[in-house]
Structures are given as structure tokens and as C-alpha cells.
Amino acid sequence: MCLFQRYGLSSPAPTPSTLPKGSGTALQNSHNEVVHDVQEEETYHTPQLDYKEPRWCHTMRLPNGEVTCFSPRGPNYRSTLGTRCELTCDRGFRLLGRASVQCMPTRRWSGTALCRQQRCHVLPLIFHGTYSCTKGVLVDSKCDYTCNPGYMIEGANSRMCQEGGTWSGREPTCADRDPPKIQCPLSRVRIADPGQLTAKVTWDPPVVKDTADVSLTDVTLVGQMPGSSFEEGIHVIRYKVYDQARNKAACKFVVRVEVRRCPTLPQPLHGYLTCSADGNNYGAECEYHCEQGYERQGPRLRVCQFDRSWSDVAPTCVQTEINVKVETAGALLDQFYDKRRLLIVSTPNKANEYYKLQELMLEKADCGLDMRKVTVIELLGRAPHAVGRIKDKHLDPMVIKELRLALRISRTFFSMVLLDKRGVDRERFREPVSLEELYSVIDMYLLNEEEHERLEPYKSLCD
Q1: Cα(31)–Cα(108) distance, rounded to whole angstroms?
Q2: Among candidates 331, 411, 427, which has minimal Cα distance to 374?
Q3: What domains are there in the chain, each with its CATH number?
Q4: Where do the segments described as Disordered lie (predicted)?
Q5: Percent of the chain topping pLDDT 90
Q6: CA atoms of 184 and 233, how far apart (whole Å)
Q7: I need a labelling partner for 422 at 20 to 30 A (CA). Which of 55, 101, 121, 383 fits?
Q8: How does pLDDT run across 379-391, given as a tens digit for each residue?
């Protein structure tokens, strides 16, 4: 049987010149009509060739496939004489016949083809499981496997029908992997006794069972034993169990121990705390201390009480009162030595534009300068009308004169001098400066690391 008969294709019709005279052979034309060669004198006429005829051959069609034609007359002609067409099938179909045909002078194509749908074989069932497919056994059909309760799939849980009629991967299996069941006790909270930071906690053993094993004895505790003392905090208690097939199950619960505590006390501004015990548990005592240059106003101790509140009210650290009734600059500066920094503002008169601008900004700086331990001294005007003051407290004229001489501060123009805690001249300003610039100089060059740490939480208080 020839290829065209095997796949149901029509073969090119033989021409009279290829048949022996008087053979009596039956010919099958394109319309499936059988013509008998009964007379050897019968003549055949080849159609007159016309390359301009747009439909020399019938339009080539391929169900479930694609026909791509190239004509000598150009892309707009698909069936003129000499046109060649490439035949391809859609995904999931296989081409049977010619992959390339040409429009012949006989007004027929040089061959035919068809697209046959591809299929995979039916998958066998698996033990203790089943599968379901999206498209049966057609190409791109996906079959998902599931196992019966108590079984778990081993291998890929799906297979795909591929082009060529084969399934992807290998057949999975369902194996008995059902772990035992274990139920832990409920989580619990215990409160530590007053003055204690631990609590004793007990519980019943977990409940275990298995679908195959009658009894389970391989139960392991991970964590502290029941009846032991637990520290403050959250403790996770875990149990795990194995059946005879070494399948594992586990559970856990939480033991939380609470210690009765008061709110954590904030560090006082310009001071610090020292506390006993754990700092804020019931019975703890906290003592307030103030930095140099400040003194405490209020109770020295506060105690954490049973109702989780602190006794008394919080004391404050206030700046030590400065004695301005001294007769020398040295006596004045000694009160600030190693305790406070000084910002000395000097102006020839109160009408000075620089001074008025700087005064407006310093009016808003009391909080920021105080946190940085900076005291402002103003030296206004010239003798005999010179005025020196710290806020609303006036200085002795001799103190004013000695300050100008000791620090070389001119009476004729506006200036500011920034001194550190030891009285060393660290920065001078000839023009008004913003608070941001002033704070930046102090923070960068005058504060130590400890002061930086104490200042950071309170910066927002002055906004």
C-alpha cells in the first residue's frame, strides 16, 4: 500500500503519457470520479499555463494546522501557478503527509496532508490513591494524584501529557506516612509571689494516640519538667512522640510567668537613678541623684508598691542658685567651674541691630541651652552706664569690667563668646547665629559621650 493510500491522501493523477497504451487503467480525478481508459486513441490536453491567474489551484486549507504560502506573484497571491506552501500543525496534532506542496500546471497541489490529534495512553490507577485529569489523554492534559486518608504521595503529584504521546515524570506511589496524634496541655499563666522573680508550674502529661499502634511509649519532653520553678517570661514546652514506623508527631504549649512590676521610672532631667532588686519589681527602691550644678527638690526615695504604682511623686533637679553678689569676675566664674558652660553676649548698646536679632532668638532658647548646661551672661553698654546680668540678676560693675578684660571682649561692637565648663574660650561669634547653628557647635565640640546619651531622649521637649 502506498503512502497516499495509507493516510487517506489523494496522489497526483497520472498523465496519459505515463500510461501504457491500451492498458485499460482506471484513473481517479480530484472529484473522486473514476475515468476508465477504454480507448488508446483518446487524447489529453494540458491546460494553458497562466502565471497571472490568481486562483490557478484551489485555496490550500489545513484543519488544526497552519498553511504558509510563498507566491512568485507576491504575498497577496496564495494559489497562483508555482506557489509553494509550508504545512504545520497546531500543538497537540501531528502532520501526516507532505510538509511542503506546490501549485502544479495541472491546477492541483503536489500533495496533501492532514493533522491528526495526538494522545497519550490511559494512566493506570495507583494503589491507595486516584488521579484526575484536565483533558483526559490529550496533549497538555495535567493529571493530579491524590492519596487516600492516612497515606502520603511519594514522587511528583502530577504528570503532563507531552507532545509525542508520552507522560512526563514517573508514576508516584502512596505510602503509609500517617503520624500519631498528640495533644498538649493548655498554655498557662502564673504570677510570681511578692519579692520573688520565679513561680512553680505543674501540668498533666499530653494525650497521645495512633491509627495503627495501640499504645505509644516513646514520648519525649523538651524543656523544663512539670513542678519546677520558672523565671519571669515566656517558656515554650514541647513534646514529641514516635510510632512503630518512626513517624513523628509533636505539640507545644506556653508557660508565662509574670512578676508584679511598676512602670519603669524615667531618668530625671539633669540627674539619674539608682535602684535596688530588679529595678521596678514589687518592693524595689529607687534613689534620685542630681548632676553637678543642680539640686534635688522632692523625696529622695520612691518604692514600688503592691498595686504596681510608685510611692510619692517624682522629685526634680533644679539649677543651683547663682550668687551674683560677688565683687570679682573670678568669684563669679568659680561658681560655674566644671558645672556649667557660659555664653557671654556683649553689645555696645541695646539698640544694636545684631543684638536685637540675637536677643529674639535667645528668648526661645532657654530650654535647649539649659539641657546643654549653658548659662547666658549679657554685658550691655559702656561705662559708666554698663549693665551686666544673668537673666534678671544684675552684676557688679567691677565684675563686668574684669570679665571684659579677662576674656578680651570689646565694648565697641556686638560679639558672643562660648566658654566650656573649665572657662576655656571655645568659640566666638561676630554676628548673630541661629539656634540650630549654636546647638550644633555645642553638641559637636563641648558635649561628651555621656551627655549626648542623656540629651537625646529630651531633645523633643524643647520643640
Answers
A1: 12
A2: 427
A3: 129-176 (2.10.70.10), 183-253 (no CATH), 271-319 (2.10.70.10), 329-462 (3.40.30.10)
A4: 7-29
A5: 53
A6: 20
A7: 383
A8: 999 888 899 999 8
